[in-house]
Amino acid sequence: MNVLLLRPAAENKSMARVVPLGLLAIGSVLKRAGHRVKILDLRISENPDFELKSTLAEFDPDVVGIGIMTVEARYGFADAAKIKSMRPDVPIIMGGPHCKHEPRFILKDHNVDMMVVGEGDDTIVELIDAIETGKNLDTVAGVAYRNEEGEYITTPARTIIRDLDPLVQEYDLIDLERYFNFKCSMDFFPTYRHKRFIPIVTSRGCPFKCTYCHDIFAKSIQYRSPEVVVDEIQFLRDTYGVREFHIVDDTFNLNMKRAKKIMDLIIERDLNIHITMPNGVRADFFDKDLIDKMARAGVYRMALGVESGSQRIQDVIKKDLDIGILPKIVEELTSAKISVHGFFMLGFPTETRIEMEQTIELACNLNLTTANFSLVQPNPGTELRETFIAEREKGDDGFSDYSFDKAECNASKVADHELLELRSEANRRFYFTGKRFHQALRVVELKWLMRLLVGTPMALLWKNALAPNNAPMQ
Ligand code: B12
Ligand code: SF4
Question: Residue ranges of the domains in the chain?
Answer without folding.
Answer: 2-154, 191-455
